[in-house]
Each structure stands twice: as C-alpha cells, then as structure tokens.
Design brief:
The complex is a heterodimer. Chain A is of the alpha+beta class. Chain A contains 6 helices and 3 strands. Chain A is about 35% helix and about 15% strand. Chain A has a 3-stranded mixed β-sheet with strand order 1-2-3. The longest helix of chain A has 20 residues, at about 65-85. Chain A is elongated and about 85 Å long. Chain A starts with a helix and ends with a helix. Helix content of chain B is about 15%, strand content about 20%. Chain B is built from 5 helices and 8 strands; from the N terminus they run H-E-E-H-E-E-E-H-E-H-H-E-E. By secondary structure, chain B is of the alpha+beta class. The chains are: A alpha+beta, B alpha+beta. At the A-B interface, helix 3 of A face loops of B.
Chain lengths: ~180, ~200
C-alpha cells in the first residue's frame, strides 16, 4: 500500500505514472459565456481621428482552466475588435476587385495604436453543462467592441448632432458625418 | 518565459510549414481568377507545361465531375446547391477563385509557370452587394436560378408583444463593414505519401 502522501512527496516517473488518470467527457450542449465592454474615446472634430483612451472588457467564462491563456485571448480579441472598428476594412470596387489587398491599404494596428486593454475575467457563474464549469472564452473580447466604440464616438459627437449608424469609425467617415450634421443642422 | 512556446519563438527555432522540407519535395501554386464573375472560354496550360521543372498543371477538367468542397459548418437547407468546386470552370465566381494548380520542382518555377497559364474569359457582371444579390437580376450560380441560398428565421418568446409593450422603440439601419482575421501564417500543408506525420497549420479566419 502506498499512501497519497508518499506519492506526492516523491517526484519520480513511477509516482507520476501512478497518478495518471484518463477520463473522457463529451459535451452535449453549447455553453454561453457573457460579458460587457466600456470604451472611453476622444474625437478630434477637425480631422475625425479618434484616440481610444481606455477599453474595459469583462467576460464570465465560468472557470478559467488556464487564466493566462484566457487573459491573452481577451486582450487579442479586444484589440482585433478595436482594429476592426477603427482601422480595418475590406473595400471592393463595383467589379468585385479588392481595393485594400495589401497591408499598406488594409490598416493593421501596431503596438502604439491602442491603449493597454483592461481585460477582466470573471468566474462567477460556472457552467452546469460540464464537470469543469468552463464556458466558451475569448470571443467575449470582440463581440461588443464595435458597438462599444461606436457608442463612445456617438456620445462624444452627440452635441454636434451626429448619429453613428455605420462602421468603420474611420477618420474619413467621422469627418463626413460631422460635415453632414453641420449642413443639416 | 511565461508561456511554453515562447522559448522556441524568441530563439528563432519556431517552425512553420514553409520550414519543412522532404526529399523530392514539389511545390504547388494556384492560378486564380482575375474576375469576380466570368465564363472561361479557354484555359491553356501548354506554355506552362513546356517550362523546365514543371511536373503537372491541373484544371477542373482533370477533376471528377461534380466534385465539391464540403461545408465544415452545419449547413442550412439549400446550402448544398452552392458548394464550391476545388478548381472552378468554366464559370468563375469571385476574384481569386482557384482555376488551376501548377506543380513544379521548386516554388519559383511553379509561380512562373502559373503566370504562363493562359485564361480567356467572357467577363460577366459582378454582384458585390448583398441587397443587389437578393434581386436576382444577376444570378451567380445559374443552375439554382437564385442567389438566395437559404432563408433562416429564429424567434424566441414573444418579440411582437415585447415591442408593442415597450416604452420606447426605434427603427434604425446599421451597417457593419467587412474585415477579417489577418494570419501571421496562412494555411499551408506538407504532404508525403509514405510519411508517418504531416505537419499542418490550419488557421481559421
């Protein structure tokens, strides 16, 4: 008889093998995580350029098996969301030719484009659909980013009578919305 | 090093599909459609095949009829009428759609030979807007007679009642542009008939 204390005290291939266990679980239903985002922006009404001052992204993943990985996913997703909202656009002409087919035209963010993102992972409500309590993680960082950014820009431009209905929030679009609102106003 | 994979990347030992090589490795390069909507009247690989180091040029004529790429995601009813062939022909339906594959002894030869594949097109009208596509004035998959692949309606609870009882309602149209994942490494595959392991990267945008 070998005690649990002995096994854990000795770190040898034998004891590690003794602690190996295999189990399988096949999920039968999808899990749904949920989250929220808040964006704080400053808009230059002369040029239409936007400075993202802060983005907070929160997601309840049920249980984070690898917290560092979940954090990285949330960061990457939120940054991709910001980039999609402000920089990236696949533009086609009437003949179906992609006009933004190079990285000179299709703008990707560099490290200085956006602020450090506040990514908060919650484990408040574990899933009941699997033994780990885990839910989908990562996409919560991008689902709401376009809407959060657009709402922030809309709030900043509300005094000018601008209503934001479209993405992307490019300087060209924002400057046009401001001009249109001034003409209509 | 906080992540297991960091060491190999920061020391330049990360390995990508392009880094793998095998004895007798050959390279495939695709010839792609230059048009969003066209009928290919001719595709001719004669000149490409005369170049040294070119082993084969395949077009849709070399594939079994009705070969189609299956859908990876759960299809809606009707989607199966719109499956994409691995190599298009004679109809091409988007810019970049593969119409031929050139296999050569090295990558440079394959790329040059791909440029030497002659393609003649009767260019049709492109449909690049979903709202225009709904009118069916130009049908991209002619055999189906319509651009509408499927109609999908989902409802839970009582939305009409909820709207009717709401203190405030608003009708607004929002437009979301198209953007995409931009992978550091695009899809690649090294295959060997007798190999026991095949390195693959699959990045799903």
């Amino acid at each position: 008889v070998i005690t649990l204390a002995t096994i854990t005290a000795e770190d040898s291939p034998d004891t590690r093998a003794a602690l190996t266990a295999v189990a399988r679980f096949t999920p039968t239903k999808l899990t749904y995580s949920y989250g929220a985002q808040v964006a704080h922006v400053a808009v230059d009404t002369e040029t239409g350029a936007v400075d993202v001052l802060k983005l907070v992204t929160v997601e309840d993943v049920g249980r984070a098996i690898n917290p560092l990985l979940v954090h990285g996913q949330a960061h990457g997703a939120a940054l991709q969301g910001l980039s999609g909202a402000f920089l990236e656009e696949l533009v086609y002409d009437d003949a179906g030719q992609l006009l933004t087919g190079t990285l000179a035209d299709y703008v990707l963010p560099t490290a200085s484009a956006f602020p450090n993102i506040d990514a908060i992972t919650l484990e408040e409500v574990p899933s009941t659909l699997n033994p780990l309590g885990a839910k989908g993680a990562g996409e919560g960082g991008i689902v709401a980013t376009g809407a959060a950014a657009a709402n922030a820009v809309a709030a900043a431009l509300a005094p000018l009578g601008v209503i934001v209905r479209d993405l992307p929030l490019s300087p060209t679009n924002i400057a046009r919305w401001i001009r249109d609102a001034q003409r209509a106003g | 090093m906080r992540r297991a994979e960091d060491l190999r990347f920061v020391t330049g030992r990360g390995c990508y599909v392009d880094d793998f090589t095998r004895p007798g490795l050959t390279h495939a390069v695709l010839v792609r459609s230059a048009h969003a909507h066209a009928q290919m009247s001719r595709i001719d690989a004669t000149r490409a095949l005369t170049r040294g180091g070119v082993l084969a040029v395949l077009t849709s004529a070399d594939l079994p009829a009705m070969t189609a790429i299956p859908l990876r995601l759960a299809p809606l009813p009707g989607f199966d009428r719109y499956l994409q062939p691995p190599l298009a022909g004679p109809r091409v339906r988007y810019v970049g759609e593969p119409v031929a594959v050139v296999v050569a002894e090295d990558r440079h030869v394959a790329e040059d030979a791909a440029a030497a594949v002659a393609v003649e097109n009767e260019v049709g009208t492109a449909v690049v807007d979903a709202h225009r596509a709904l009118t069916d004035d130009v049908v991209i998959h002619e055999a189906t007679g319509t651009n509408v692949a499927s109609r999908y309606t989902v409802s839970r609870g009582d939305p009409d009642g909820a709207f009717a009882a709401a203190d405030y309602t608003r009708v607004e149209t929002f437009r979301c542009h198209r953007h995409t994942a931009v992978a550091l490494e695009t899809r690649g595959l090294v295959d060997a008939a007798a190999a026991t392991s095949i390195p693959v990267t699959a990045a799903d945008p």
